[in-house]
Amino acid sequence: MDILSMILMSVVAAATPLLFAGLGELVTEKAGVLNLGVEGMMLMGAVIGFAVTAVTGTAFLGIPAAALAGAAMAGLFALLTLNLLANQVATGLALTLFGVGLSSLIGQDFVGTPLDRLPQLDIPGLSTVPVIGPVLFGQDALVYLSLLAVGGVVWFLARTRAGLVLKAVGENPAAAHRLGHSVLGVRWLAVLFGGAMSGIGGAYLSLAYTPLWAENMTAGRGWIALALVVFATWRPGRVLLGAYLFGGVTIAQLHAQSAGIDIPSQFMSMLPYVATILVLVLISRDATRIRLNAPASIGKVFHPGG
Amino acid sequence: MRINRRRFTQLSLAAAATPAAFAIGGKARAADPLKIGFVYVGPIGDHGWTYQHDQGRLAVEEEFGDQVETSFVENVSEGADAERVINQLATTGHGLIFTTSFGFMNPTLKVAKRHPDVRFEHATGYKRADNLATYAARFYEGRTVSGILAAHVTKTNTIGYIASFPIPEVVRGIGAFTVAARRINPDLQVKVVWVNSWYDPGKEADAAKALIDQGADVLLQHTDSPAPVQVAEERGVKCVGQASDMSRFGPTAHMTAVVDDWAPYYKERVKLALDGGWSATDTWGGLASGMVKLSPFNGNLPAEAISDAEAAIAAIESGERHAFDGPVRDQSGTVRVPEGEHLSDEGLLGMDWYVEGVQGKLPG
Fold it and tell me: Where are the bilayer-spanning segments (chain A) (predicted)?
């Protein structure tokens, strides 16, 4: 494999966990729920995905287990905020703290356990095409899944009745309720989906990106995913763009440093954040459209009786 | 109602204070064990910095048995929280308290002033008091040995160095490594990537890949996760582990690791505290004191590399060799350390320049 495709492979790897978590959070927020617990859910996905894969020896069990772990954390959040009407911001922050602690506890016995990297699934014929071949068709299963998920979320939100109901619940829960839709039911499902996606994003870190478990290994990626959703103005295609841009600039600045380009490293480390925000802000600078995209009821408690 | 609540608060505060008072009273009795507290910045399961300190604590327990009673608090963040934790240990009858991260320096000093009868020890700091000692390890001596190994195995003459933050400790390590490696192989160049984090497995792995893509065939790291070792193994290059033996993550790639061993120091200090000879000293121990060690060399290394490395360890231990023996030049070629001299401890502690052979510019 030549250097260029090596670099592009690293970009894809850096972007994929952000893409999973960002897409999940996007669906959650489109239903009007703000879950700041992404980091905690990712960590739980990372540790459970790693533990199950290490014990059973197969990622085919590890990845679904990670999704379940993320969804379980999200379920806790849904119970507190949707049924017990707790404040979403506070509960989300608490969920992150809880996830950091619980994942360390569960992961204690797995610190320092090596694991084989998730295998690459080469698509026959196509993966040998120069440069783009390995990048597009020589990835592991989770990368393909993340790209399918982008298409799936776009299709779901734009083309299905269920997607329309979800957006209606996010825009005006009272109206959706009066039309006979179960606001709580829809929000529960959206929150669970967000948790499962965060869990898979975490598992990508502990199974494919750096196949090991280490405490707090997400190192803030959950927060980056959250920010991506906002700067992408709740559009799945832009979350994809933002995640790849962030990954790309991250890798590019590391290469620039090792090539000896004379720019302060602190500035280089800042660059992915600045570049991603800048590009996403520029392409979505139409304020009216942002307001149309932003779920109107986000973060607000809904009580069917009230 | 309000008065009642206030009175209730006062009562409960008094109740909470009582056990502490008992504990202080109890300390005076001679038969009681010496209570020793440890404050850690990370989890004891990090298999790195904090793990090594906890191994030292366990060694103390084993050595002194029921003469001592140890306790520890892990994951203490550097700041206001640290002061609270240290203060709590000081007020609950601990006679000797070790705080094991640079950021605990000011909180430790504050609490030490408040409790003149308790002895404190702070790792890697420079502020001392009558009851506050400091200690640190000359980690860079291990970098010298790494440099010798790297110089023997590199074919591309390009070394990749994954660095955390541009502080003297890290710059010193890069310098010691480069000086030793270029003494054997003057063509060798060191590329440095700063990841601006002590610990981010994903970013460390990305930096490792970038360095390998740019031609590095040996990786050094001054960050704490084993991710670079994993990358080195996959890409078929060599590496040196950090803080603890990481050979499990790269059985072929892992040449050795530079390891801290705090056990001898902790045992010595506890013994002094028990015997009454403790004083607020400043210790900076290296290979000779056993505070810095190298994990077993990989069997796949050339015999010459291993014998050279072992000779260097012996020479450093005997004081014959110093990591920065002159002449040492900086990047512009200016001689910073003249022949026949070596860099002073003061020069080491404030080191803010790259030696010759390091590429790129040191971030300010």
Answer: 6-28, 40-61, 67-86, 93-111, 131-158, 188-207, 213-232, 239-257, 263-283
